[in-house]
Amino acid sequence: MTIFFGRRNIMAQLSKEILEFVFRYIDTRPELLNANWVVSRGEKGIKDLAYEIGLMKSKYPQFDFYIDKQDNALYVDGFLITHIGNVYHVQIYFPSSYPYYPPLPIVLDKEIVQKCKSESIPHNRGIQRNGVALCVIKPDDTVGQPWTPDLSSTTIVNTVAKWLQAYELWQKTGKWCLREV
Q: Mean pLDDT, to the nearest integer, of 1-26?
């Protein structure tokens, strides 16, 4: 059985099992309902949170959701493995204006943080939240894929994975192979 769960002019299909998992997940993590963008949007925010959890857990089960106690920002935390086997710690922060503004991806890898401090790494926004904030998608991009409210946090995880692959290639060749997404 498939349950249709609407979000921002799209219909997402979440299986009954995933939907049940999402609500159990929220029941065990009620603090997630205090995320700044969830609270500000009421019931719609709760539905969007459920959608994000369901989608993230079905595509990237290694990521978990948390609340930053300093500013009530919702973020996901997990690890990505590149094609050559390197493991990178990644966090994706949801801004209070989500879904109208894209989440902020942060790479917490010590080597990347040190490189960002000592030399210019392409497509980053400097050190934020103890890691390197990546510039992977812009709300007003007219060349690549602009951010729209129909996209989800999994879009950002996909682009972070591409950024990490480009970073590893840049380390070997000195050339950045990825344009801004």
A: 59
CB contact at 8 A, 105 and 156: yes
Please classify residue 115 by burial: count the beta carbons closer than 10 Å to its beta carbon, then call 0-12 exposed, 13-18 middle and 19+ buried.
middle
Please state the separation of Cα 15 from the chain's center in Å. 22
pTM of this prediction? Answer: 0.83
CATH architecture of 2-173: Roll (3.10)
Give the Å distances, CA to CA, from 7 to 20, 90, 146: 18, 26, 19
Task: Check whether 85 has a pLDDT greater than 60.
Answer: yes
Q: Are 12 and 19 in contact (CB under 8 A)?
A: no
At 46, list the tokens: 């709760």
Alpha-helical runs (H) found in the chain: 16-28, 36-39, 42-59, 110-118, 153-173
For residues 110-122, average pLDDT? 83
Q: Are 74 and 32 in contact (CB under 8 A)?
A: yes
Listed in sequence order, the residues at least 6 apart from 111 whose beta carbon sits closer than 8 Å to its beta carbon are: none
Q: Where are the domains of the chain?
A: 2-173
CA-based angle 72:126:94, to the nearest 5? 25
